[in-house]
């Protein structure tokens, strides 16, 4: 019996034919997934840069060979591009969609906000001063950093998408976006919608993060958002636990090759799963806090389920945003109860093991959701030692659970009330 290649609205069904990962648990899908199911933590003490006087000295870092070389560690924009390229290479190799160095669709790249880190600004100022130039003028910065072209390029996040598009031969202008902690999921949503509108046969969707550095740690510390459990790195990220005290910064990347199911079948590609629905809501309430009503979070979850043509009862598992901050976990519980009522499905947080990968999180967690359906196992929420009476959910505590599910809701809730949820489905049979 053949399966339809269109959804309930007559749109092309969107298949995932290749995935790639870089996480604090390892390079590649197999290593990251095995570590996750084993309940292994990728959080450790920071050694890449000095942490004197920082309140938080732990992170889910990903070390590159160049970090140990003279002149290292690599600046954030270079790390983002390197992680994104590694994930994309794995995803494209798995999908077989890249023929003769050309990819049959656009690139949607989710990455950190475009800005110049303070160390680079100071370097520019010092060099401009030597040339009697005004360091606050952009041309002067270019001229000052001209002595070190690599330093200038390292400050240009805007070039990352162009470099990746040229490297992998994607079609059209690459789209780079940043929607806070929902960025990776937003990149997937854009790819899905392009295929659904029949504007593209395929899409390469990437979420990448490489900003584990002192400046970022200071910023989040000033918001009281980070865990300070520095003496126990592996136990620091504890979503839904009563003793949670904040999230742990992390970095990495995820890449997904999306194609119409019809296109994938026509070329005999192996389908890992489907992206069935997307939901997006913003609450415009506060720069960092969610609206206490939870309307945007609830709306994003409901919209994703409705977009997939499903009912809440059709969702077998929820991959949580689950940051481990007191407020986020409380708000996500509110959303779960509002959407699913008295019998919510199991929910677990990958961030308990890999930390919060920020711009990459939504894409990484979408891949973990697909793998959960493929293998019939739900990843755990580790460090769940003291249940919070206010969070009466099945959080798959501490150990992975064998359980077959056909539909997964993956939540991504960002600072500023930018919320994106995805509904993913198991690979079709027949």
From TrEMBL:
Pathway: Lipid metabolism; fatty acid biosynthesis. The keyword Acetylation does not apply. Pfam families: ketoacyl-synt, Ketoacyl-synt_C. InterPro entries: Beta-ketoacyl_synthase (IPR000794), Ketoacyl_synth_C (IPR014031), Ketoacyl_synth_N (IPR014030), PKS_Beta-ketoAc_synthase_dom (IPR020841), Thiolase-like (IPR016039). SMART domains: PKS_KS. The chain crosses the membrane at residues 12-38. Keywords: Membrane, Transferase, Transmembrane, Transmembrane helix. The keyword Transferase applies. Belongs to the thiolase-like superfamily. Beta-ketoacyl-ACP synthases family. PANTHER family: 3-OXOACYL-[ACYL-CARRIER-PROTEIN] SYNTHASE, MITOCHONDRIAL (PTHR11712:SF336), POLYKETIDE SYNTHASE-RELATED (PTHR11712). This is Beta-ketoacyl-ACP synthase.
